[in-house]
Design goal:
five-stranded mixed sheet, 350 residues, Heat Shock Protein 90, single chain, elongated, 14% strand, alpha+beta, 9 helices, 7 strands
């Protein structure tokens, strides 16, 4: 069992007071015994021993109670900055490094610690800002040369005068250019999202229509591996959102359901309305996500054991983008997985 600092200090204070009370009781009892044995006290009517003991004990409890209350007040007052420090630190994360912990103004050890943490956070914020700027500029600068390369290789692939072997090689290069383009686009999107530079074009959408369109796209993707795609919707379901981003989200889920699946497997899309929310389930019969990979499944650039074993292309940005789109629409994206059965559940306000 792990106890907090407040609990440990409280028990320490209680222990000190208990020992002090025990010492007072022992001394009081000893004093009464000595007084009873004093020859000068003979001939006087003695008070009952228990009454003397109770009187001394009660008198001792009064200063002890004051001491305990004062100790508790000092303890709470001393630890109040620590509580404020903890609450402020919990609000700090990669997307909120502008948070600063207020100084108490007393110039004590807590203020020194707070100032050190604030300085460290400022340096971290500056580092994140530099990385973000570099990523944004790099992704922007890479788009033009990649677009030129793509256009040139498309022309080479479609040139009937070129030998077939050359056209096959050019097509392979074109695939790599498109993969690199997707990585650059994904990095640019997530970096802009971190900087709150992405604006959603919200409108009233027929979400069931978007889901059916995504199912058709999944069927096209699944055709080479003979995967069966089924789609079940419970009727018209309207949501407020960005059509382009929601379609991107659905395509990511469907693309993953196809890629991480066995040949001849199945994919099931189920859409229903529950408690004012649109709930979409995307299930497939793939190898599943291990508990070790499940912890990192929404992390950028993470590729699980299944991706490596199946030698799948990808860069580990799809699900992080899907999660950002979901949260930007005030929704949730969760998953459950076991061998031959993985399900992602998307919930959006309807």
């Amino acid at each position: 069992m792990k106890w907090s600092v407040v609990t440990r200090l409280t028990w320490y204070l209680a222990g000190v007071l208990t020992v002090a009370l025990a010492i007072i009781v022992v001394l009081a009892y000893r004093e009464m015994v000595l007084e009873a044995a004093d020859p000068a006290s003979f001939g006087e009517e003695p008070e009952p021993l228990w009454w003397q003991f109770a009187e001394v004990t009660i008198r001792s409890l009064i200063p002890l109670t004051v001491l305990a209350a004062g100790g508790w007040w000092l303890l709470v007052r001393a630890l109040r900055p620590l509580k404020a420090l903890t609450e402020s630190a919990e609000r700090m994360h990669a997307g909120n490094l502008q948070e600063r912990i207020p100084l108490t103004g007393r110039g004590d050890e807590f203020d020194t610690l707070v100032q050190t943490l604030n300085d460290m956070t400022a340096r971290l914020a500056a580092s994140f800002e530099r990385v973000r700027d570099f990523t944004l500029h790099a992704s922007h600068e890479l788009k033009t040369p990649l677009a030129i390369l793509r256009a040139d290789y498309e022309e080479l692939v479609n040139d009937p005068k070129r030998p077939e072997a050359d056209r096959v090689r050019f097509a392979s290069h074109l695939d790599e250019i498109e993969r690199l383009t997707r990585i650059v686009d994904g990095l640019g999107l997530l970096t802009k999202a971190d900087a709150s530079q992405v604006t959603l074009q919200r409108e009233s959408l027929s979400f069931d229509e978007l889901v059916r369109d995504a199912a058709e796209d999944a069927r096209v993707l699944a055709e080479p591996t003979h995967i069966t795609v089924s789609c079940n919707t419970s009727g018209p379901i309207m949501v407020q959102g960005d059509r382009h981003r929601l379609r991107q989200l659905l395509l990511i889920l469907c693309d993953n359901a196809v890629k991480y699946n066995r040949e001849g497997g199945t994919i099931t899309l189920g859409l229903s309305a529950r408690g004012g929310h649109a709930v979409l389930s995307v299930k497939n019969t793939g190898p599943g996500i291990s508990p070790e990979d499940g912890v990192h499944v929404f992390e950028r650039f993470h590729r699980g054991e299944a991706a490596r074993q199946m030698n799948l292309e990808g860069c580990g940005l799809g699900l992080p983008i899907a999660l950002w789109i979901t949260r930007a629409h005030s929704g949730t994206l969760t998953f459950t997985s076991k061998p031959d059965d993985t399900e992602f559940v998307l919930t959006l306000p309807a």
